[in-house]
Amino acid sequence: MAAFRYSDKNPSHPISFFEFDAMHTRIEVLLTGLMQERGESLAQEVERRVRDMERRFNRFDMKSPLSVLNTRAVADSVEVDDELFMALELCEVFRVATRGYFSVAALSGAASAAWAQGAPYVLDGATHSVKYADEGVQLDMGGFAKGFALEQVLTLLRDSGAESALLNFGNSSVAAIGHHPYGEWWSVGVENQVRRGEMACEVHLCDSAMSVSGRAPSGEYHIVNPHTGAKVAQDEMILVEGRSPLVVEVLSTALYAAPRSERVEIVKQFDGYAAWEIVCSRSGSVERKRIE
Amino acid sequence: MNRKEFLSDCGKMGVAGVALSLFPWLESCSEKAKQEVQGEKVRIGIIGTGSRGLFHIKHLVQMPNVEVVALCDNYRPHLEDAAQYYPKAKQYDDYRRLLENKDVKGVIIATPLYLHAPMTIAAMEAGKRVFCEKSMAFTMDEALEVYNRRKELNGVLFIGQQRLFDPKYIKAMQMIHEGAIGEVVGVRNYWYRNNDWRREVPSPELERHINWRLYSDYSRGLMTELACHQLQNGSWAMGQLPERVMGAGSLVHWKADGRDVYDTVSAIFTYPNGVNMTFESIISNKHFGMGEQILGTKGTIDLVTAMHYTDEPAPKGSGMHQLIEQIERGVMSNSVFAGTSWAAESSSLAPGKPIMQNVKVVSGESSVGAEADGSKELLEAFLHSVVTGKQPEKVLEESYYATQFALLADKAMHENQILYLDDKYKVPYVPMKMK
Ligand SMILES: NC(=O)c1ccc[n+]([C@@H]2O[C@H](COP(=O)([O-])OP(=O)(O)OC[C@H]3O[C@@H](n4cnc5c(N)ncnc54)[C@H](O)[C@@H]3O)[C@@H](O)[C@H]2O)c1
């Protein structure tokens, strides 16, 4: 259950805040200007929505639509619901636009290289069915689900009249509705990877989102290069900013996995998105370079 | 990371003293201790130059302050293998003759289990300082006899339980004693392999000599050969000894070749506080390999991989909470919280944290030994004691009880009963534990 907190210490900008663990990380939502009851009911709706997606895209849950696909779509064409179908369409678009550096088939092991080049699955728009291109294919939506969930939560909040909100999904994905009550934007600091607690750079969000990819805080490399199936061992962070929380997430992952020489071409495919390479050195200096 | 780095790390963190008081046997590896023995060449003899004996020799040849002056094995080809490393060493086929050699200060015994006790006692009586491979003895009575004899003679005795000297185990136990995983509520050990556990035999009459571990006349099989390594994990972590044991063993798969030790065993050791420690071994499936895990109310430490997993979500969310405060006060400034993805550490898929850097993980597949498993440190500590004549505290008791409980579990399996360790086998036990 989401932990909900309400503060009207500042009567002109009452705050609803809630957080809960989902998709192996935590989501935090801060909304201003709502009555407590409204805030509470939104918290419940958001949690329900996120949990639903968590189940849907969990390949380890034997009953999830995704795991059904993973077991059956090798042999047969499998019909899926609208949402999963759309998600798979989007993933294919992203795979092509990122030159294969974002791929939900990245974890297919040795076979993954092939599916970075060509489509790992075939979609049939008429029947909404999916068939995997080869028996080696296994889809993992982990790199997609968080951004996708944020996207849907933002829509839900906007539709319910929220005008000022900040959402944080596991620190790596942050999205804003409107601006801070006392500023023209929400100001978010990106933490220095080498000197924890210090700020590496600052991002201003207003009806926009940002995503950071790089080594996990524990130091682990966890992003896989779909072309090789191996983990990418790069120490820089990639920061992407733009309108959609889903796109920034996908794009930052792909850029991190891609070699420097290909990054500019990939960014060009995404209109209205800005990306940076951020290098934090032990001496404390931070180098921030726009990819363009 | 080797032992020296471990100690110097402790020094840098200002806890070298603590580490030494906690694990006194570490002292033999400290800088001060190293100086103590500088210049002296330690002269030792090796009894049993089969695969484990050779494994030790390969470490010894790298150590400049050691000279192997005597070698003994009653199987000629093995003696010759060892002699290649030390051509000048005197060769024996009867260990009693080796023990008469006055040049020999310390002996390493790496013979089949049933010979451990008689050889160890004879060696101590001959005034030698002894390192005998695990398990300590073939029977419970013999283990006690060895233990008591060492005391009477005020001798030096090390048993080949190398985990007690492995930096990653030492670090893990220190963390456990400091409460990193809360209260210990379970200990899991398992060791799976998929092979017949046989060695090649050049001629049939050598079968029992070479494949001694398959016959209950010489070995107690998986319990004495594998379990004993893992059975100290519970007492080391909790500072207490098991109270009773039950178990089941059988010959499931490798039954056509005449062996009479189990190829499948499971045992449960229950501690006075109700906590269970399990041991399971199967040698006809190797998927899960070797595992040793200490389970606590707040987390888990995997001893084999040196990883720490927490059951509690890490404190988090300060960035957003700062933001709330700002709005409450009617101000705006940035708050730093964004970064690369934060995984809920309590999630079962969360990767966990290494407990130290540069850990080498040992698979447990080799029946000879593995690099970086503490064996070398154990050997160094022994060589140091050969010079100083000092028996490190508490270590022998851990090895003693590991052997007793391995043997007791084996007995429980054969008698199909729940067994308690008889009082006559209880020797003073001081936990290697920080209060
Ligand atoms: N600590 C560890 O990780 C580890 C690993 C492997 C083996 N070991 C232990 O080492 C010991 C030896 O195991 P191994 O695998 O080397 O066995 P092995 O059969 O390869 O070697 C034993 C040697 O002892 C010799 N031997 C037998 N009877 C003798 C006698 N009366 N006098 C002199 N020599 C005699 C044999 O000829 C043989 O060369 C066992 O106790 C085993 O449990 C420990």
Could you explain how this protein is built, in words?
The complex is a heterodimer of chains A (292) and B (435). With 292 residues, chain A is an alpha+beta fold. Chain A has a domain at 65-140. Chain A contains seven helices and 16 strands. A nine-stranded antiparallel sheet of chain A has the order 1-2-3-7-8-11-14-15-16. In chain A, strands 4-6-5 form a three-stranded antiparallel sheet, with helices on one face. Chain A has a two-stranded antiparallel ribbon with strand order 9-10. Chain B has 435 residues and is of the alpha/beta class. Chain B has a nine-stranded mixed sheet, covered by helices on one side. Chain B has a six-stranded parallel sheet with strand order 3-2-1-4-5-6, with helices on both faces. Mean pLDDT of chain B is 88; it is low at 9-15 and 345-349. Chain B has two domains: 3-164 and 376-388, NAD(P)-binding Rossmann-like Domain (Rossmann fold, 3-Layer(aba) Sandwich), CATH 3.40.50; 183-370 and 394-413, Dihydrodipicolinate Reductase, domain 2, CATH 3.30.360.10. Chain A binds chain B through residues 5, 7, 9-10, 13, 15, 17, 19, 21, 24-26, 28, 30, 32, 60, 166, 168, 170-174, 180-183, 187-191, 193, 197-199, 202-203, 210, 212-218, 220, 222, 237, and chain B through 313, 316-317, 319-320, 323-324, 326-344, 346-347, 349-351, 353. The structure holds nicotinamide-adenine-dinucleotide (NAD). Residues 47-53, 72-75, 78, 95, 110-113, 115, 133-134, 160, 162, 225, 367-369 of chain B line the site of nicotinamide-adenine-dinucleotide (NAD).
Number of domains of chain B: 2
The overall pLDDT average of chain A reads: 89
> Helix-strand pattern of chain A, N to C?
EEEHHEHHEEHEEEEEEEEHHEE
The CATH homologous superfamily of the largest domain in chain B is termed Dihydrodipicolinate Reductase, domain 2
Number of strands of chain A: 16
Quick one: overall form of chain A?
globular
Question: What percent of residues of chain A are in strands?
Answer: 25-35%
